[in-house]
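In response to the reviewer comment on reproducibility (Comment 2.3), we provide here a single inverse folding case reported in full, input and output, so that an independent group could reproduce the run without further information from us. The structure tokens appear first.
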């Protein structure tokens, strides 16, 4: 803006309301210089305030959306962690069961081996009745122990800690 200092000497009076022509006592001049700008500033200020209110409204909406999505994500993460824990527990149980079944399978395998050995012995001595009478007291208790359902399982002679022979 253009400011004209009137003819007074010194700077003491330079900022007197009547010394600057824009602020002179004549209201027409002031209105002419600042009226249009004041209206533009007023309109722009109202527009900026309206825009600021709209942005605040959008920000509150975005924050509420963020909070909602954060809650959902947290729930999903907790659910996933629970599923992982449950899966891990089930996998642990399945591993234990697999180990147990493997051990049982090994026992059954050895039991079948024992029965095959006994079958081979019985088949070999079946044509020799005098030898069958000698082997029978040893083989019958072994067969009885292997084939009973008293919880001992097959081939007790091959369990851990046994001597490995099928003798009673």
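Designed residues, in position order:
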């Amino acid at each position: 803006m253009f400011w004209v200092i009137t003819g007074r000497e010194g700077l003491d009076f330079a900022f007197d309301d009547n010394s600057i022509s824009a602020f002179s006592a004549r209201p027409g001049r002031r209105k002419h210089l600042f009226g249009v700008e004041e209206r533009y500033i007023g309109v722009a200020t109202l527009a900026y305030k309206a825009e600021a209110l709209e942005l605040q409204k959008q920000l509150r909406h975005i924050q509420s959306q963020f909070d909602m999505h954060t809650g959902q994500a947290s729930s999903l993460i907790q659910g996933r962690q629970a599923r992982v824990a449950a899966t891990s527990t089930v996998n642990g149980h399945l591993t234990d069961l697999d180990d147990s079944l493997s051990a049982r399978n090994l026992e059954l395998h050895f039991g079948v081996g024992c029965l095959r050995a006994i079958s081979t012995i019985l088949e070999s001595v079946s044509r020799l009745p005098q030898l069958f009478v000698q082997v029978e007291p040893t083989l019958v208790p072994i067969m009885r122990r292997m084939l009973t359902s008293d919880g001992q399982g097959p081939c007790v002679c091959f369990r851990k800690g046994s001597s490995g022979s099928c003798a009673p």
